[in-house]
# Entry
Amino acid sequence: MDAWSLAQMLVRIDSTDPGAYEGDLARAIESMVEANLTKLPGDIGRHISLERLEVLPDRSNLMVTVPGTGPDPRLVYICHMDTVVAGDGWSRETPPFGGVVHGDRLYGRGACDMKSGLACALSALFGLLEDIAMSGSLPQRGFSLICTVDEEDRMRGAEAAIAAGWVGPREWVLDTEPTDGQIQVAHKGRTWFELTMTGVTAHASQPWEGADAIAAMAEAISSIRRSFASLPAHDELGPSTVTFGQIEGGYQPYVVPDSCTTWIDMRLAPPTDTRAACRIVTDAIEKAESSVPGAHGGFRITGDRSAVERDPNSPLLAALSDTVRATTGQPADIGFFTGYTDTAVIASTCSNRTCLSYGPGSLALAHKPNEYVPKADVMRVEAVLRALMRKTLWHTNCQTDTTF
# Structure
């Protein structure tokens, strides 16, 4: 089954997070892998492992590993199995779990983020197993496909894979997130804050008797925005950004509110880091307390992921760039991922800079109604992933161009 057919099948399996989660999808993948492993000669097949790692109830990572005969670090394709919720706004012709194809586009939740990328990685794995069956031997470099849970939430699947020793500082790691045809080589940091302002209730007709927590929060938000506008931009990752994604506070329009909480998403580009962000938030609280007497603020960090900068000497980047050029006839376009991925978790946690993103589709379509992926993208990435495996697993001493 090619990646295009696999993608349609995977989209039809609900793995929303929160929602159905990944159980049904993981079982379908296990079944396909086991069926392909039965085609191998017994003396080779017994060396290839399929592991399950429970991360949360009925939410398990999967890893298929083909060992190499040499000492080189494994090539790892890592893909998450969960999607965001289906949401509203889907057209009748393209329901979120229909896996419908219209005009060479596959529609559905996860079509580009990232079930088509998962399909390409699975197809590449199955192609490797066919090559092993035909050659009767294992490759020089080992390979693993890791399928994770929880990427769309707290990324506990990637963290569990690291803790279990599935991946670490040496592996060549590639995720297949939607990258608009680019090889994406770096990530901004992602720091989340929960900021709370407290005040004193009073009748709205006598606001001087209270302390307006929402007004204080408005002052804090404005201060943070002004601070971000003056931060230095990174040469490649660009400026740091801040979003106030959720806010709660107050009781009724006629009551001075005594509490307000906002949840903040910061995407931080070096040299700005979480420590600098804490100083910005602390300064904003002090200004809000000064502006609204009687109000007091506090915060806690609910997520802290450091930035990952490009490694121009990455051997995986060199190999993948050569493979893209040879497979598509076009030079590889190098870019930077605006979100945060499983490979970014591995890169920042394990100090592994040989971590990249390359997959079908556009991130601009992810998490939206009527999400889709073009067939041409899927077929291109499938061909590149298969060619990269042939290039790096069987010919580990090949020379590659490292000039971009």
